[in-house]
Amino acid sequence: MLFFGSRCERLCMMQFALISLVPLLLSHLQDSASPDFDAQSSTSLPPSSLKTSDRSSLLAYMGLPLHIFGRGSLFGPYTPLQQLDILADHDRTRSYLVGSTNSLLLQQRDRYSDILINLDDSSINISSPSLRNALSLSAADRRWIDFLTQTVTSTWDPQNPSRPTTLAYMGSEEFIRLQFEEYLLALLASVKQHLYLSTPAINPGPKTLQHLHHTHDTPDPIQDFNPDWLSFWQGTPSYALFLRTTDPHLFDIVEPRHPTAGALSVDDIQRRITQQIATLQLDSKVAATRENLGKHLVTGQKKVSTAFEKLWGDIETLREAQKRKAEAAGEGSSTTGTLERKVSVSSSNEGTPEKAARAPVLSRFSTPSTPDLASVAAAGQKAGAYVSSWGAWAVEKRKGWGAGVAGSGWGRARGGEGTEAVEKGVDAHRSPGKRKSREVMGGDGIGRLDA
Fold this sequence. Notes:
The chain is mostly helical and 451 residues long. It has helices at residues 8-19, 39-43, 55-61, 84-88, 103-107, 109-112, 129-134, 139-154, 173-198, 227-234, 237-245, 266-280, 282-348, 353-365, 370-406, 417-428, 432-441, 445-450, and strands at 2-4, 73-76, 95-100, 115-118, 123-126.
């Protein structure tokens, strides 16, 4: 049996806690340091007296402690690598209980262990099929260990593991040790009774423990224990020393009966099914499956949401693009219509004073070509000449108004030569059509000007 753990203190404490469940074994480890030691086997004698009120006397009379670590056995709570050769020597070392923090033994578990207890991950691995059958629990054994574990679990105080939450005896450390002590005493008494019932009077020698039938009407209590385990124990030096140093009638001192003896019941079946389901670890597997499913659902939901958001964003982008395109098309059509209207007005008003003022407006909204620039320059020159003619006329007219005020009032040049000269000068800058219209209107300067 190999204990493995990364913490040395916890590793050693777990091994000592295990062997302490066998009464008085901790105080009888003088032969456990080497497989060559066997002093207890040569010095042990049957007890000559019994005092039932003395626990130590009772345990010694019942053959406790069992001689587990004798010749061929080894107990090493912390085994160094230098002792690996001793562990691998099967002719010298037939059994051992050791502990190690070196992962080398963990990697070679099949070579150095039949039972591996890994304290880091709280697992037990039994590599030997024969040992797996021998270590299986009978119905009474399972009922007993279930009662013990449920009692301890229901009263466990994580803040103070040394005492139960009820501060009572049930679930305490003393309660656990006494339960194992009661179980071992019942086992030893049942073995003695089985030998007594299965041995004829003419042949008092013991028979094998697999011989379960007996010639008496008394039921054999050993049937409540695992017969495979009893068969293994029968082939050890510990069993031989027990037979040699104990009284054949131990069952008269301790009742030969399993602590939780009884036939298989419905409760046992339900408990067995519950434990089998627990060994399958369905809760953890379902929890892991549920967690993975939840993660996949969340991931899928995010992907679908991202896809919908992207699709909706593309649709909104397309809508905005179409909207801007429509607005640009509307603005272009309105600008084109306005320019067309301005160009038509300008063409209709060509040769008027308003043309010179509207020509720069058209140039701001459109980029004229080379012929358009030439026409605009010519129109500018004509507008300048036209404005200068109006300015000259206004100057001369102002002079005429001054002479009229000084003479006869209102400046009416009745037969005056100055007025006629001004009129001739103005008429020289007018088109023939304009002069013709003035001649039709009459010879009055003011009237012809108004016309």
